[in-house]
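step: validate -> pass
step: tokenize input -> pass
step: predict -> running
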Amino acid sequence: MAPSQVDMEEEARHFSNVIATFHEYQKYSLSANNRRRKDLYKLPKADQELFVALGYREKLNLVDEAILKNAEFLEGIVSGPGIFDGDDDDEDAPEVDVEMNHEHACNDDGHSHSHGHGHAEHSHSHDEPRAPPDHGHSHSHDGPSHSHSHSHGRGFHSPPPPGQKYKPTEFDMDKLRSTLKQFQGLPERESCYTPMKDALLEHFKGKTDEEKASLRVLVPGAGLGRLAFDVANLGFHTQGNEFSHYMLLASYFILNRTSAPLTHAIYPYVHTFSNAYNKDTILREIKIPDVKVEIKNGTRFELVAGDFEEIYGQPDNQEDEVHAGQFDAILTCFFIDTAKNPLSYLRTLHRILAPGGVWINLGPLLWHFENNQTGDVSIELDLNEVKELCKTVGFDLSNEREIHTTYTSNSAAMLGYMYHAQFWTATKEIKN
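step: predict -> pass
step: emit ->
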């Protein structure tokens, strides 16, 4: 069903609000840091002098400088040609074939135009234990931990009065800060992505380069697209899927408007002073990208904007088997616990996987809608139940093991969360 005018207006308004959040980052973050400065000056003069002697005021100034550098980077993301308008005429942009299939593009609530409805704000992070229910169910703390936010709602912010700019909320800024933290993490990528890529190559060992280029691989919940990018550079026709505009804007900028390694310097950890050994913990610089941004040998690589179930699921009233058996491999990394109904995810994965294909999974079970305050369905299974359900749906699991990993963690900080992430490969059971 084609989107209604109301749907399109809501989509445009939401996208505009995301852009406004990028633009307001500098003002918002400098104000938050200036609060510390104001608090310092509220102290007795003798106490102020002691803190100044420790270098506290100097540290605040250095954080201001880092925020300004972050802001410059974020402005670069949203100041270029539009991600969805196909207006990228930069002749110096790298030759990366990235398609933003906006016909399915959704808002950060994960709902496509055809539904025209959204849930209240719901962000659930893979970075720390549960917060009490009265915290509004936004679990992306800005601590030196590893955020893995999946924002399944935008809350339908009331539009500002005519002539007034949208004022981003703390929740909006939290999603933007989480996006910054997603850019780092070579050790984490090696612990998570390497075994997944190895399993993919093992499953298709003996395939020629030409044969691999014809095999289609899907990476749902692609985030900034790095796993999908890596898989494409293994020679597979790769499609990433992501619904967050924050992630899509950032990945588009790196994939299409950046080519040389270490082009940008960002400071993802300047937004909190907690659990820092020293100022270097807070001011830790990350240079990105850490590789040359190019797809080797002309391999197809595209990103599809939208909700996984909305795009790849099978509507009840649709007789045609859209996407059925379309993918020779599916790689899910820290993804399956974003489901409201895990059975629906598993059925979709099974349906779109081709006979002889492989599903490769790695991640925890931090159910993102648990204890939500928005009335969303949430079925939260333990690991044994998930595996039994996989078998019931028709998957044959193998290579099951546990991999210890963090997620966008500041390794230089005093606090970090370790996941006992579950790894497996799965194929469709052969029916007699």
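step: describe -> The CA atoms of residues 137 and 248 lie 24 Å apart.
step: cleanup -> pass
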